[in-house]
Design a protein that fits this description.
single chain, alpha+beta, seven-stranded mixed beta sheet, 30% strand
Amino acid sequence: MIRARPRAIIVDLTYSFGMVHSSWFNRSYFLSCLVSLSFQSGLLKRKGWDRSLPPPGYFSVKGRCPDEDGEEGCDFLVSRSYVDRWQRVGPGWKFYNFHVIPEVLANPSVILGGLKREGHSHGFCYSGRVSKQMQNAEIELPPPPDRVGVVIVCPDHRGNVVLDYEWRQEDPDRPGWPQSWLRDFVRPIWTT
């Protein structure tokens, strides 16, 4: 059993094996060996990843929990591939206004439950006002007038996963709420 410096061994194996062998069989065999080594060295746990860390391919954002109490300190997962795609192919406003996600999750005006989308009925909508709008990496503007930041979250086996976010028209009667919220969501779960 390997116990000394497993990360260094795996990195070395990855580098040398990737450079020398390129056939599908060799790569799949290598991956099975790598997973086996990871289990033996304790890098991976057989019952899943270490829940104190985000799963591979995600990063964590802190926010208010999606329940009636609305306690602070829940973790939300954002896919790294989504952020990479927004940066490479757009839309550019999503990449530059990524700050909407942590701002709205941490300080929502309302948490709405019962997402009216096929397969996502257990999802949540976080809605709230944000501090700014970024036009690009250097130009900061005031937030869009009469708009709120909306973050769609869906819990699954990984945790609370952010599916999407956007600007929506603000309800004139309820500050911080999205307009026509009853069309897309079932009920408010938590409100300020």
